[in-house]
Amino acid sequence: xxxxxxxxxxxxxxxxxxxxxxxxxxxxxxxxxxxxxxxxxxxxxxxxxxxxxxxxxxxxxxxxxxxxxxxxxxxxxxxxxxxxxxxxxxxxxxxxxxxxxxxxxxxxxxxxxxxxxxxxxxxxxxxxxxxxxxxxxxxxxxxxxxxxxxxxxxxxxxxxxxxxxxxxxxxxxxxxxxxxxxxxxxxxxxxxxxxxxxxxxxxxxxxxxxxxxxxxxxxxxxxxxxxxxxxxxxxxxxxxxxxxxxxxxxxxxxxxxxxxxxxxxxxxxxxxxxxxxxxxxxxxxxxxxxxxxxxxxxxxxxxxxxxxxxxxxxxxxxxxxxxxxxxxxxxxxxxxxxxxxxxxxxxxxxxxxxxxxxxxxxxxxxxxxxxxxxxxxxxxxxxxxxxxxxxxxxxxxx
Length: 398
Hints:
This protein folds into 2 domains: 8-232, Spore Coat Polysaccharide Biosynthesis Protein SpsA, Chain A (Alpha-Beta Complex); 237-397, CATH 3.30.1330.50. The chain contains 11 helices and 20 strands. The chain has helices at 40-49, 66-79, 95-104, 125-136, 180-193, 200-204, 279-291, 297-300, 313-326, 349-360, 378-381; strands at residues 8-13, 34-35, 38-39, 54-61, 85-90, 112-117, 141-147, 153-156, 159-163, 170-172, 176-179, 211-214, 237-249, 256-257, 259-260, 263-264, 270-271, 329-339, 367-372, 385-397. Helix 7 (279-291) runs parallel beside helix 9.
């Protein structure tokens, strides 16, 4: 019977010591190893956040790291807000102690919980969704499991005691999903009665039925030095495109002189603007931001901030290009158009293109500049203002 659970949270276990990997990883605990520019625990957090049923996450770190890692997680959320609630707590001596501490950090209203090892960074959002679906359909505990392909033998010392029937054997993965109250009860019993277990299902099995769903072969755990090769996959370069648009109205003799692409344009036209009003560089800056999802120019350089009064727009572009570099993005082409009835821009086109190339650090064939009119239509045709559009092509390493 369907009974949707309220406030499902994930517990991401990142409290292990990683002793088996310590030498191979240079002493870095495996949960902090980087994969595609982010630590393993953050990859799991990203995946959980993509599942509609997940309301929040509890990160469990080693006790001596918890305080520092709370600041680190706060920084991660500031840079990349995952859109879920989050908390940090300290782990314990054993895995089950860390899970129990994570359960203690959950809000009272949490009806369902998924416990996941951060050393499994390749888990899919689809599998998490299937686990939640099984809970909502009435299962009290659900685990992902994969068929065993090797022949399994029970060995006593160095002697084979028996060959097990692999048809009934499964390899168990995380995340494992449970009713929160049931998992809490299981941990309380384990603590009171001295149970030693390697996963949460081992506890819950003593109290209630646990359902198995199909796991994923790709949901591997980074455990041994050989597994580190999985984190060294070839980086893939993908193209990305950003588009920018900006407009300014013409002003009077006390407003800003007209500047396009960092080039002063002589004549009587002036610009109403907070910064220098370079409509072309503003459109270009927005387009660069678009290549890596960086927001818009107004977010980074608001016209309500006095420090940007009269500011050189080339500085805005330079700072945004630095942000693009940090995001692994390299601009390779820009196509720019200014739309204005006046002034006539053909005499300045070569200089504007050359200056934009200089600002972007590109060759002549990588920057195209055009100027056009709107045949006396609209506000530009009526000589009330000027506008620009920019299309930027970039390459990003993933």
